[in-house]
């Protein structure tokens, strides 16, 4: 007993030392359970003075540090179970917090969370397979909806300074009746890249797709507090279920990221190459026109419970070169844009998170694309008042019921926000500088000209069983035979009017969306899922679209992520 306690204390000290000096920089991209557990610890036990909560891709060493500290806290049995579960994902079989086993052929699954691993002082590697199979029936459209996804994920580090991550996923799937019109219109699958038609004999589905998705990054720790990262992926800034600044809705893109965290500040700048249009929009082997993005985000942690963030981003297209003036990682982009005679799409934003009460936090976001103070309060509905905002709250252990957690969020974005006026010969009706990639928004999935309420409950009644229920209600003014400001891809010079623009203008849709997912963990990271979804989209002009779905599935080493707009 004494020896076991000494092992825990020694592991705690070593864990803190390693995390502070050599900590692993990889992110837990696909582990929503770990992120949710850390948020519970933040609200219920001890506010973290180090991690900045608006960076959604949480670093592995941050999770390690917080979980190591939690061994000194009096936590609930549910949180203790989840901690031991996440420990297996974070650590290697020869680490102190993992119950090592002989494994298969004394090589595989020595740690039940990892297929194969290497843990030496100068080299670390983990390899895991990915599997996600779902299928069910949409009774409203009388179609089968399915997903067949397989993949491989690996991550590691070399010499404690170089870190890497890579994943590859292959899909065959069909989609709900409200997603198919998006694919038909934009020649793009939400969150994915190029695709080809696929006929499923198993599910008797002709309107299906075959597509692949890859993500990878290679990073170097420049100093103890700074790093440089080159990758192909996506990012998320904010504390909400949505982000009006930068979200992970769009497909992966090539990026170079410079970041540091020191004192009460965390900063990152991202330079990215984006696609103007989608691969399916062109005929034959034609290289897509490129556009570029440069983004700064500075977060200041006033106290462990209060955090502010300041955001700016510019999207621009050049026929033959990158605009090198935007390479300065600390300059204000608005001043550069002005010196270039204002040819580009610059956005500025604000993010804040405040743990105001025990168990409760509030968060806000503000995005400003363009506005004039004189017109903002005039009531004239000037089209150039392009802005949006988000208000949300999180409450943990609702009604004192352990693991019953609530999140409530409201989003609103005015017409024409994120759009721009530059065009190209390849896509003359589309803006080359809109805040998008591969015909997909870089912020909110609905684009602009909408308001939305989201209500989410998460309940973990027993150790291996999780229930997540969501209700979404959206009002959006869709574009029909004219540009009313919903479609951010269309050049805003084709706008309907300069004045008298109002939220929800155009063909109004009232969307109600309810979904419930039930997940039971059979073994470490192997889940069996059940789904219920009901969605109505009432539009007098375009007609109604109704969805009613019941399905099931199983997945291994991946989150249960839904397309829910």
| CATH architecture tag | Beta Barrel
Q: Segments where pLDDT lies below 50 for 5+ residues?
A: 1-22
H/E element sequence: HHHHEEEEHEEEEEEEHEEHEEEEEEEEE
Query: What is the CATH H-level superfamily?
Result: Capsule assembly protein Wzi
Using the coordinates shown, work out and report the CATH topology: Porin
How many individual β-strands?
Answer: 22
Taken from the alpha-carbon principal axes, the silhouette is globular
The main β sheet shows up as: 18 strands, antiparallel, barrel
Structural class: mainly beta
Q: What is the end-to-end distance?
A: 53 Å
Helix content: 10-25%
Mean pLDDT: 88
Number of domains: 1
CATH class: Mainly Beta
Number of H- or I-type helical stretches:
7
Structure description:
The chain has one domain: Beta Barrel (Porin). It contains seven helices and 22 strands. It has helices spanning 2-21, 32-44, 60-69, 77-90, 180-186, 333-339, 373-376, and strands at residues 116-119, 123-138, 143-158, 162-173, 195-200, 205-221, 226-233, 253-262, 265-275, 290-303, 306-316, 345-357, 360-370, 386-395, 404-413, 436-437, 440-441, 450-462, 465-478, 507-523, 526-539, 545-556. The strands form two sheets. The protein has an 18-stranded antiparallel barrel. It has a two-stranded antiparallel sheet with strand order 16-17. Helix 1 (2-21) runs antiparallel to helix 3 and helix 2 packs across helix 4. It starts with a helix and ends in a 9-residue tail after the last strand.
